[in-house]
Design goal:
Blueprint lengths: L33 E2 L7 E2 L6 E5 L1 H7 L5 H4 L6 E6 L2 E5 L10 E5 L2 E2 L19 E8 L3 H4 L6 E7 L7 E9 L3 E12 L2 E12 L9 E15 L2 E15 L4 E2 H5 L11 E18 L2 E17 L14 E23 L6 E26 L9 E33 L5 E18 L4 E21 L2 E12 L3 H4 L23 E14 L4 E13 L2 E5 L5 E5 L2 E16 L2 E16 L24 E9 L7 E10 L2 E2 L7 E2 L2 E12 L2 E8 L7 E5 L9 E4 L4 E11 L3
Parallel strand pairs: 6-9
Antiparallel strand pairs: 1-2, 3-8, 4-5, 6-7, 8-9, 10-11, 10-38, 11-12, 12-13, 13-14, 14-16, 15-37, 16-17, 17-18, 18-19, 19-20, 20-21, 21-22, 22-23, 23-24, 24-25, 25-28, 26-27, 28-29, 29-30, 30-31, 31-34, 32-33, 34-35, 35-38, 36-37
């Protein structure tokens, strides 16, 4: 594997109330778990009026995932879409999308600042540094701010162990993937530390031109100044480079010809995040923290999705692009928690300041499209090759300073016995000072919003409870969208560039009710949620015939569904988990065209594309008494049918696949194997097409049956 040398800047970690909570155990009853994300402080599930799930250390350890989507997809109501080499998009109360409707957190702090969303942000995560994952479904903008609309995913890192620990191992599959991983830590006196690193390499995979290399290192240091005061730092550094193989056409997909049409597209990332937190407990009812943080991120790509080609124009000519998006963030967040005897009330209040300068440029490249032989009416491309690059022909070229400020507060109290009421609000102000080098314009834009939530939990008996919740969501347009030249303008078009200066923030209103039920001495658990969410000015991508994208933020959408999860543990040998969702995502009022000659004027009443009504993940695990330390499981992943285009002409049937996992612990050595796509099913993670009558589908192909093997050494010196 390639070596990488890390220079650590260990000056910070944002540590929230989970630092006071003991590390997650192998407890299987989710309803008894303590959650942090929904309230910014530790709270029981039955006291939290939102749909929230927790993936425990046991689940993470037994999954032995090569990519984090394998873990997150075990959450009811969540579909994290694999785009290959840890690239991804998400579907939580939304269609499968790359839009900025999800908030990704590390220990409660956003991975990206507001306005610089990246749907691939989780490829920077070190899977070997995860203690647990909390997933909130629906808007939590009133606590965490914009982009916390469809859902929020909080990745909680491992804290320093009390006793010295060390683990390391290797993992590989039959398609050229291999990973080395190591972690260790200890607490010595007042100082505790934990370090975790991974190095992944993919070569000569099942898809041509799909190599990648990823190296991550996480380091955390805790210093106990006194029993009531703590100083905690956490730093991550990661480098990532991947070929971007892209999608395949229908004929190649059906024949399992997994051949990339390009050998020049790529994505690379260089990320540093570091934080320093000072925590203090004033007394048993009062605590505060303040965190200073730094982000430094460089993202460059020649994206396969940026290739534009039309068979009706000049079928042998195409366009591509090269782009670079670099930003730094300097920020601070402070929070105070106060408990009162009156009505058992608790107030959480805080404020945030974030300054993020960003530079972005994108230029045009000329491509030759080498066509496949066949019917001219169904022409497809066999391969693209670069003819010329035009660094002076910019699609985007801007610098911007983003200033984010926010204040939030939430109160929970018991107005009557067995009833917990929660009310919260947050004000966000995002100011963008920009300098657009293409149209030589300078100026500023301001997006601000007050978001509100109110909810209640009622637990009339020990084995059942209910909740109701109203919450608002808010998502300003990403600045990359604002300063991107509209299709047919700028570059080599000869038409002056036009931009999306008038894109509006999207607003959401979410209503939901749900509950939980625990029977048979907690052996059988069930939870559910019914939600109804309306979006206004939702940022939608219109895929044009040449694969270019036009942005719109107008009209209304509706999202409604049922999420459910159940677990049954009849004995120590068996654990059965069932989870899924039924959802409908619909255009209510959305104008597609202003031209009277266009056959379709609007999308009113149509289903949104890439929006399966049914999806789910279930699993049966077996831990035999006759062979202690052996584990086995069979997992079922379901994705139902959905429309490929916005005008609802063609559907993709979806898929059912099965994964198998087995592992055995012998003394300090663990040996394991996973079989992904157990039946070797032909399927695609995503299928899409433009609205044109002769449009051809593109398939993001999924891997054939894959065998994963690994061995790990676990050492712990107990005092």
């Amino acid at each position: 594997m390639k070596k990488i040398y890390f220079t650590l800047l260990i000056i910070g970690q944002c540590v929230f109330a989970q630092n006071k909570v003991e590390q997650d155990t192998t407890k299987s009853q989710e309803l008894e778990n303590i959650f942090v994300t929904a309230n910014r402080t530790a709270a029981l599930r039955k006291e939290t009026p939102v749909a929230i799930s927790k993936l425990t250390a046991k689940t993470i350890n037994e999954t032995k995932a090569a990519a984090v989507y394998e873990i997150i997809n075990k959450t009811p109501g969540v579909l994290m879409v694999n785009l290959g080499n840890e690239q991804h998009m998400m579907s939580i109360r939304q269609p499968m999308t790359t839009n900025a409707y999800y908030l990704y957190l590390e220990d409660g702090l956003p991975i990206r600042p507001m306005g610089i969303f990246n749907h691939n942000a989780l490829l920077e995560i070190n899977q070997y540094n995860l203690q647990s994952i909390e997933v909130v479904k629906g808007p939590v903008s009133s606590l965490y701010g914009p982009e916390a609309v469809g859902g929020t995913i909080n990745l909680i890192s491992i804290k320093p162990p009390v006793n010295p620990e060390l683990k390391f191992g290797i993992q590989a599959d039959n398609y050229g993937y291999k990973r080395f991983q190591a972690a260790g830590g200890a607490t010595i006196g007042k100082v505790g530390f934990h370090i975790a690193g991974i190095s992944s390499l993919q070569e000569n995979g099942w898809m041509t031109y799909s190599d990648y290399n990823k190296n991550n290192l996480n380091a955390r240091i805790d210093y106990s100044i006194s029993p009531s005061t703590r100083l905690v730092s956490n730093t991550m550094y990661g480098k990532y480079y991947s070929d971007m193989s892209g999608s395949v056409n229908e004929d190649d997909f059906n024949s399992r010809t997994y051949k990339s049409t390009s050998n020049f597209t790529y994505r690379k990332s260089d990320a540093l995040r570091t934080r320093l937190t000072l925590e203090h407990d004033w007394n048993s009812n009062s605590s505060s923290y303040i965190t200073a943080y730094l982000r430094d991120n460089k993202l460059g790509q020649n994206p396969s999705y940026g290739i534009k080609w039309s068979p009706t124009a000049n079928p042998t000519a195409a366009k591509g692009e090269v782009n670079s998006n670099n930003f730094k963030s300097y920020g601070a967040i402070g929070q105070h928690t106060q408990k009162f005897d009156f009505l058992n009330a608790k107030i959480v209040a805080g404020a945030l300041y974030d300054y993020s300068p960003v530079t972005y440029w994108s230029y045009v490249i000329d491509l030759k499209a080498n066509l496949n032989p066949g019917d001219p009416g169904k022409q497809t491309v066999n391969s693209y090759e670069i003819i010329a690059e035009h660094p002076d022909s910019k699609l985007s070229d801007y610098t911007a300073d983003i200033f984010n400020t926010a204040g939030y507060a939430q109160i929970s109290f018991n107005p009557i016995e067995k009833l917990v009421a929660t009310v919260g609000g947050r004000y966000d102000n995002m100011k963008v000072n920009y300098d657009n080098a293409i149209d030589l314009s300078k100026g500023n834009k301001v997006y601000d919003k007050f978001t509100f939530k109110a909810g209640a939990n009622y637990n009339p008996v020990d084995f059942a409870g209910f909740y109701g919740n109203y919450s608002q969501g808010f998502a300003p347009p990403g600045i990359t969208s604002i300063f991107r030249a509209k299709p047919g303008t700028g570059g080599t078009s000869g038409i002056p560039a036009e931009f999306y200066y008038n894109l509006k923030p999207a607003d959401f209103d979410n209503y939901e009710v749900g509950g939980w039920l625990s029977l048979l001495e907690n052996k059988l658990n069930f939870d559910y949620a019914f939600y109804y969410m309306e979006g206004k000015n939702e940022l939608l991508n219109i895929k044009l015939p040449d694969n270019s994208t036009d942005y719109r933020s107008a009209g209304e959408t509706r999202h409604k569904g049922i999420e459910f999860g159940a677990s049954y543990k009849p004995s120590k040998q068996f654990n059965i988990r069932l989870g899924g969702t039924y959802a409908q995502h619909t255009y209510i009022d959305f104008k597609l065209s202003d031209k009277p000659s266009d056959p379709i004027q609007d999308l009113n009443g149509k289903e949104m594309p890439s929006a399966p009504k049914w999806s789910g993940n279930s699993e049966v695990s077996y831990y035999p008494n006759w062979l202690p330390n052996l584990r086995t499981s069979i997992e079922w992943q379901l994705v139902g049918s959905y429309y490929q285009d916005q005008i609802n002409t063609v559907k993709y049937d979806g898929y059912n696949i099965f994964n198998a996992r087995v592992g055995y612990q012998w003394k300090k050595i663990e040996v394991y194997g996973n079989v992904l796509n157990l039946t070797d099913k032909l399927y695609a993670y995503n299928v899409s097409r433009t609205n044109a009558a002769n449009a051809q589908p593109t398939y993001t192909a999924a891997a054939p049956r894959t065998f994963v093997f690994g061995i790990q050494y676990n050492f712990s010196l107990k005092k």
